[in-house]
């Protein structure tokens, strides 16, 4: 639980750094960074909900009070998780279009991606709440947040009780998540291949351009690995729950990794798009140095 709290706090701080860079440094703004800002806001909602859920779980609330809170928390965190996965896939599509020199298509994609990534998850979680599918989840309650309710009042297709739970878990999260697992690494592979096919003679490039290309290539390698490295643990536990595999579903290490990973996309975004982006990294260090110089000196110094 403590690892989940730390990961949540770091993600909220990381999102704050991304928002700060967007608001105050106009020269780093771009269509891609706009999508990253939307992605980061959705990840901040997830982290905030998980953080509050962890505190509520540690507070040992009465079952009735916690269940009411759980439904509301599940609405926001489940919806934001789907928003995050959809923006992750659209960012990959945007990068592919830009690398393929289809700039007009990439620019047109941004408003469409924003609309679909927000409206579709909102409709899904609204339907899930209306059908009584959101609430305290046996799958994720150990690590402090809520998802699909195990109660008998879940409505849905004419399936068994467990079948309806599986149905809603795929509709309200796992379907989009599994699609992102497959789609994102494959598309980043094609992005790298397209970049390699357009290799420039490094002798014709100045040092700044070479460093920018190196930054881009480094991030293209890291993005799918970080994405899978953070998110895969919850999916392993989910598969263990479906298959009644106690090693996967009840493994304490996997539960801890899920607690860190599912809440950790915010600080991962900050690493990728702030500290691993040269232009932003330089501005951060310049800002820190300026603040240090302007700090008031002690009279005796």
Automatic annotation (TrEMBL):
Its main location: membrane. Residues 14-112 form the G-protein coupled receptors family 1 profile domain. GO terms for biological process: adenylate cyclase-activating G protein-coupled receptor signaling pathway. The chain crosses the membrane at residues 6-25, 32-55, 75-97, 109-134, 165-191, 220-240. The keyword Transferase does not apply. It is a multi-pass membrane protein. InterPro entries: GCR1-cAMP_receptor (IPR022343), GPCR_Rhodpsn_7TM (IPR017452). GO terms for cellular component: plasma membrane. Keywords: Membrane, Transmembrane, Transmembrane helix. Belongs to the G-protein coupled receptor 5 family. This is G-protein coupled receptors family 1 profile domain-containing protein. It comes from Arcella intermedia.
């Amino acid at each position: 639980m403590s690892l989940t709290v730390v990961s949540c706090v770091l993600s909220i701080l990381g999102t704050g750094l991304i928002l700060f860079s967007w608001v105050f440094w106009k020269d780093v703004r771009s269509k891609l960074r706009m999508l990253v800002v939307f992605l980061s806001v959705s990840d901040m909602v997830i982290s905030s909900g998980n953080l509050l859920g962890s505190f509520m779980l540690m507070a040992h609330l009465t079952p009735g009070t916690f269940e009411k809170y759980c439904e509301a928390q599940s609405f926001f965190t489940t919806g934001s998780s789907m928003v995050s996965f959809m923006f992750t896939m659209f960012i990959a599509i945007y990068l592919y279009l830009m690398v393929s020199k289809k700039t007009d298509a990439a620019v047109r994609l941004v408003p469409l991606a924003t609309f679909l990534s927000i409206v579709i998850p909102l409709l899904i979680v609204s339907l899930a709440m209306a059908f009584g599918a959101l609430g305290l989840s046996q799958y994720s309650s150990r690590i402090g947040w809520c998802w699909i309710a195990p109660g008998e009042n879940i409505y849905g297709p004419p399936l068994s009780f467990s079948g309806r739970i599986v149905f809603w878990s795929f509709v309200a999260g796992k379907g989009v998540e599994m699609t992102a697992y497959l789609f994102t690494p494959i598309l980043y592979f094609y992005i790298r291949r397209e970049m390699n096919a357009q290799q420039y003679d490094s002798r014709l490039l100045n040092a700044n351009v070479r460093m920018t290309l190196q930054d881009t290539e480094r991030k293209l390698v890291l993005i799918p690995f970080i994405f899978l490295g953070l998110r895969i643990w919850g999916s392993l536990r989910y598969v263990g729950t479906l298959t009644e595999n106690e090693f996967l579903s009840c493994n304490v290490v996997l539960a801890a990794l899920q607690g860190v990973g599912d809440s950790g996309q915010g600080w991962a975004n900050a690493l990728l798009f702030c500290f691993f982006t040269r232009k932003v990294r330089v501005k951060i260090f310049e800002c820190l140095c300026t603040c240090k110089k302007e700090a008031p000196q002690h009279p005796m110094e």
